[in-house]
C-alpha cells in the first residue's frame, strides 16, 4: 500500500533532524591511527638508542667522580679500648644489650682530596626500618608538640610501667641510632662537623615541634626504655635549638628508610670553621672515635661509617648510568634486527590500507552513506 | 510473517499458564469496593449485584492482609523517604562487588590485620555507593513526579445515587466503577466497553502509547449489551475473566446477567487498555476491570530480560586465574612472614624492628597475615571491573544510539545494556522474512480466479461470473478491517470510497483491491456489512447487506480466517488463508483441471516471490450452521483455552470448500537488504531464514536478497521478465576476496529430498522405520553431503520436517546444519522458531542474533542471545521484546560489523588493561615484601593505593573504551571479513590474559627494581619519597600504556591522559603541602616537593617508563610486521 500520503511522510522523515551530527557523538574525532610495524618503529628505536647511550655515559662519569669512603665498624674494625681483644659488638652482647657502652678507635687513610661538600653518613645493613609494625609505631601528633594522650599505634612503647605516656613514644623512637662518631685528622686535628642542617628544613619547621616548657616536660615524662637520657639532652649544647623532638639526629632517624639497607645523614663537614677544611676533606690519615652503643649483631646487621662527596645526581651509584647504556644498546640491536626484518619481510603495506580508509573517510564526509 | 489476521497468542508458554493457575476473585459493588480472594476461582467483577455468598465485612476481614482494595492509583517508585537509605543500600549490596569491598574494609578494621589506613579504605566504596544512590534517587524522583501527575488526572465516574457522571481523580477510581471517556481523552484503567455514543456501538482507539502503532483500532460493545432495555450502567451482571496479567493482546471474559440465563462472551475486542486514547467516537462508558498496578500495560512493562554477554564468561575465567594468583601470593607472603620473623630465634627481643612476639600464636598470625595480604592485593581480582564495565557499556550504547547512519525513521533503540560485545561475536543470524527482509508494504499484483490470471479490472469478463463475485466478496468482507468515514454524507454516491483501517496489511490491500475491482465494502458494523457491487462500466450500483453470523479469526495453527454471513436466505462461509491450510479441506466436487491450474499458478507466484492466499467459499444450509453454532457458542464461552476451543470449532465448519482462486501480493525487499546480507555472509556470519511462507517464496526471496546464489537457467525463467537477480557484488564496494566469496554458486540441499532417499533405502531393507531412525539417518546423510561439497551449501527445511526433527534429534540436526552457509526454514510457526533458537543456543559456540518484526518472532527474539526487532507494520510486540530495535534490516550491517566489532575490541582492551594494570600494582607491592620482611608494609601511602586504579587512571581507559577503533568504520564495512577478528575473539584469548600478566610482572619488576637499585645509596629517599617515586612511575606507565594498547590516538585519549596526570600531580602537590598529620603514621608532608627537585628522580623515572614499555612495543611491532591482523585475508 504505497499511497501518495505515505510517500510524503517518508520524505518528511528523511528531512527530519537526525541525531546531533558532531564529530564527538558520531565517533569521528580526528585521530592518528599509527600502525606500528618494524618499519614505522625503526626511527623510534634509533632515537632511543642515540639518546640513552650518551645519557648513560654522562651518568656513569658523574657517578665515578663522586668520592666515597666506607668503613664497616660492626665488629673487627672496632676493637674495644677497655677490654683487650674484644670487639665492641661482643662487649655489648656480653652485657646482654642492656645499655652497655663501648669506645673504639679506627684509623684509615683517604687517598684523594674530598673536595666541596662532604657528607658523613652512618649506614645500616639488614635493618628493617620499613617493617609494617615498626614503621607505624609512632605518633605524629606527639611529635608536633601536642600533649594529648598518645596513639595506641605506639604499642608496645606507648606507656611506661607506671602508665604515663612515653616521650617520644613508639618503637622507632625507642630504637634511635645512638652511636657517636667523632673524626680527627692525623689523630689530633678534630674535623669540624655540623650537627644541624642535616634534616629536611620543612621537617624541623613544621612536622617536629617541642611542647611548651620542653625541659620540664621531657624531665617529668618517661623516656623510651632504650634511651640513656631524655629527649631534651640529645644534644649536649642546649643553646642550639637542637633538642627534644627537634633534634636533627632524631628527625633524621624518624624519617624511616625505604629499604633494609640504608644510610642516613649523620654530619656535614663545616667548611668555614677551619682553614684546613675550607675546600673539603684533604687526603691523609684520619682516626674515627666511635662510641659503640647500638647493637646490631642480634639480627646480623652491619654498621658503616661513610664519607662521601656529592654531585648533581646525588651520591655514588653507577647503576643508573649503566642501565641507560644497556637499554640504549638493546634498542640499537633491535633497530638493526628490525632493519633486516624490514628489508627481507615483504608484507602488505598497512599504510596502503590506511590511505584507502582515509580516502573513504573523505567520501563519507562528503555525504556517502 | 505478514498474513496473520489476528495476533497469535502465546498460550502455550509456561509464563502465561502460570498466571492462569494463580486464580483470584475480586468482587465489588459500584461505589463501594470489597474484595474477596478465594483461590482457584476466576477473577470476578460484580456490577450492581451484591456479592452472593459472603458478607462484605467478613470478606474484608478475611482478606485484608492479602489484598488492598484495587484502586487505580499507580505506584512505580521503589522507595519512600524512610525506606530510601536502607532499601537502596540493601539493593546495592546485592552486587557481589560491593560485598567484596565491604568485607575487605571490615577486615581492615581488625587491628592485627590492618593493612591500609582505616579511613582512606572507605573512600572508593563510599564513592561508588553514593553515586549509585544519587542516580537511583534521581530516577525514583522522576518516577514519583510522573506517578503523581498521572494519579491526579480527572476522569468521569458514574455516581449511582445521582445517576450522573461526576469528576474523580484517577487514583480514586477502583475496580467495578463505571467511567466515561470522551474524545481525545485517555482511558484511565483497563475497562470493558459497556456503551458507546456511536451508532454502530463501536469506538476507535489510538494505541500509540501502548504499542506504537499509529493506525486506529476499532473496539465494539459486547453483543449482549446491544439490545438492552435499560442503560448498561443500571444493568446488573457479573464479569468473570482472567486474573490480572501482562498479556496486552488477550482478554477473555464471560458476562453473567442476574436476570437472564445466558452467559455472554467478551474478549479483547471489547476491552480497552489503560493509556489508549479515544478518537472520533464522542464518548464511551466502560466498567473498570483491572485498575492501577494491575492494569495490563503496567504489568507488562515490568518484565525485565537478563542477558549476559559471552565476554563475561572470559572475564569470569580470568577472574578465576587472578584469584588463583592472588591466593598463591597471599599464602606465600603469609608463610614467609612467619618464617622470617622466627628466623631471629629467641633473640627477637633485641631486634628493634620486631615488635610483637613471633612465637606467640603462629596460627592466628598466619591467618591474620593472609587476610592482610588479601586486603593489600585485593585489586588482583578486579571486582571494580564489573562497575566500570557497566558504566562503559551504557556510554557505548549511548554512542550507538546516536549513530546517524542507523537512523531512518526512528533512531536505534537499545534496551539491554549488557550485551554490546555480543554484537561483535554474532556467528548466526536468525532472520524472519516478511517485514524484516521485505518492506511489508504490500502491492497487489495479480489474481487467479478459476484458472485465469487477472491483474486489472479491465481484464474481467463483461458478464457477471459468480465465481469472480464470490472471490471478490471474500476479499472485501473476509477480514477484520473497519471503515472510517471521512464524509459519511456522500455515502449514497456511486463513487464513494471509504477509508479502510485495520491491523493487518494483507487484509487491507486485498480489501482495497476488491474495491478497485468493483466490489466495495462501504459500511460495516458488528452485525452487518454493506457491500456495493458496481457493474463494469461503473454506472450502476447494487448494495447488498450481509448479516455477520460468525467471524472466525486468524490464528497461527489454522493459518486461515473465515466469515459466515447471511445474504437474504443464503448462508455463505468465505474463507481465505495459506494455501497449505486450505487445500486439504477442499471439496471433492472441485474441478480437478482448475485445481491443477491453480496449483501451477501458485507455484509461479511463489517463484516470483509473491505472497499468495487461497480463497474459497462454502454454502451452508441453515441446519448445518445452527448445529455447528451451538458447539461454537460453547467454545466461545470457555474460560480455559478458549482460543484452542474456537480453533477446533472453526476447523469443523471449514470443510468441503469450493475453490475460488488465488491472490498474489508482492512484498518488496527493503532497501539495502541484499548488500547487508552479502556483507554479513562475507563477515562469516551464517544466516538462517525462518519464514512462514512456502518454500518457493522463501527461495526466491533468498535469491533476491543474495542469501543464496543459484545459477539461473532460461527454462525456469520462462514466466517472468522482472525477476530479481542478485546485483553484482562489485556495486557494493567490497574488496576482492569478499567479492570472490559472493560470486560462488550455492549448492542447495533439500532436507525433504534427503529424507525421501533415506526412506527408499530403508524400505529396501526393512518394512518400516520410526521417525527417530529416519531422522537420524537423514541427518547423518545430510552431514556427509555437506562435507562433500566444496562450494557453499544452503539447506532447505520445511516446518513439517522441522517438527519431527525438533522432537527427535534437534541437537544433531543443528550441529550438521551449522556447517551450511545458510539454512532456509519454510512454513515454520512461532513456537518452532523459538525452539530452534533455544536448541541452537545450546549447540553453537558463537552467539545467535534473532531479528524479526512480528509477534511471531517474539519468542525467537527473547530466546536468542541478542534480539533485534525491526520497527514494522505488525505492531510493536517485537520492539518491546527486543534488545535493540532498528528501522531496517540494513542497520544490522553497521550494528554488527562496526559497532559490534568496536564494542568487543574496546571492551576486551578495557578488561585486559584492567587485569594487567591491577596486576602490575599488586606485583610492585609483592616485590616490596621481599625487602620488608613480608610484613605487609607498603611504601605507597594509602591514598595512592586506593585511588591508583580509580581516580588516577580510570579516565583514559574509559576514553579508549569509547573512542578506540581497531579499524575505521568504512574499512570494517568494505572488508567484512575483518569481522572474524572479533567473531573468533582474536583479541581476547586465554593467552591474551597470560601475556598481559607477564607484561604486568615485567612492568612491575622494572618499576620496583630500577627504583630500588637507583635510590639505594641516596640518603634522602626515605620510605615516603620512595613510595611517591614508585607511584609516579606506576601511574605514568599506566597512562602511557593506554596509548600502546589502543589502535588510534585521538584528542579524547590524549586529553584524558593529560587530565589524569594533572589530577594525580595536583592531588599529590596539594596533599603534600597541606597534610601534616592527616593519616596516622603516613605523613607525606613535602615529600613530593623534595623528590621532584632531584635529578636522579627524573632520570630514574624516565628510564623506568621507557623500559617498562619496551617489550610490549617491540612485540607489537613484530606482530604487526609478521601477522598484521587487519592486513591479511582470513579465508
From TrEMBL, chain A:
Keywords: Membrane, Transmembrane, Transmembrane helix
Stretches that traverse the bilayer: 41-61, 319-341
Biased composition (Basic and acidic residues): 10-20
Recorded topology in the membrane: Multi-pass membrane protein
Compartments, as annotated in UniProt: Membrane
Region annotation (Disordered) ranges: 1-20
Pfam name, any one: CDC50
Keyword Transmembrane helix in annotation: yes
Keyword Cytoplasm among UniProt keywords: no
Chief location: membrane
GO cellular component terms listed in the entry, alphabetical order: endoplasmic reticulum; Golgi apparatus; plasma membrane
Family: Belongs to the CDC50/LEM3 family.
Name used for this protein in its record: Cell cycle control protein 50A
Species per Swiss-Prot/TrEMBL record: Adineta ricciae
TrEMBL record, chain B:
Pfam family for this entry, one: PhoLip_ATPase_N
Catalysis performed (reactions): ATP + H2O + phospholipidSide 1 = ADP + phosphate + phospholipidSide 2
All residue ranges annotated as the P-type ATPase N-terminal domain in the record: 68-118
GO biological process: phospholipid translocation
Keyword Membrane recorded: yes
A molecular-function term among this protein's GO annotations: magnesium ion binding
Domain P-type ATPase C-terminal: 880-1122
Entry membrane topology: Multi-pass membrane protein
Entry-linked PROSITE patterns: ATPASE_E1_E2
Family (UniProt): Belongs to the cation transport ATPase (P-type) (TC 3.A.3) family. Type IV subfamily.
Name of the featured protein: Phospholipid-transporting ATPase
Organism: Adineta ricciae
